[in-house]
């Protein structure tokens, strides 16, 4: 690469990287979030809408957040199901008040699920 092009190319790449990070952090309003704050790896996660659209994830590591790209509609419940190691299943449903709201499920100590 020509030395005259190296600095502009690096600046353009830095700008594009920053723009992508800002887009991902600020403008991703769609979907549902599932956060693991339990301190252990949880497995067998399933997020479903009332219409039958479901997404699955095998594992979610401690302090990791899963952004689930489901299209939400007002008044339709969204359900999170987590399969614990002992064969136990925990499930929580949430009905979003508006289509723009982003429900967040937080799995805490002992596998308890809260909606925020």
UniProtKB/TrEMBL annotation:
This is Uncharacterized protein.
């Amino acid at each position: 690469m020509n030395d005259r092009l190296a600095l502009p190319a690096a600046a353009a790449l830095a700008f594009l990287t920053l723009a992508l990070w800002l887009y991902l952090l600020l403008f991703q309003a769609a979907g549902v979030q599932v956060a693991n704050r339990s301190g252990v790896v949880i497995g067998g996660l399933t997020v479903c809408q009332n219409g039958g659209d479901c997404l699955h994830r095998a594992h979610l590591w401690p302090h990791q957040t899963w952004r689930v790209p489901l299209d939400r509609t007002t008044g339709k419940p969204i359900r999170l199901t987590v399969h614990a190691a002992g064969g136990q299943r925990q499930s929580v449903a949430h009905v979003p008040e508006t289509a723009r709201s982003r429900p967040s499920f937080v799995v805490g100590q002992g596998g308890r699920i809260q909606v925020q």
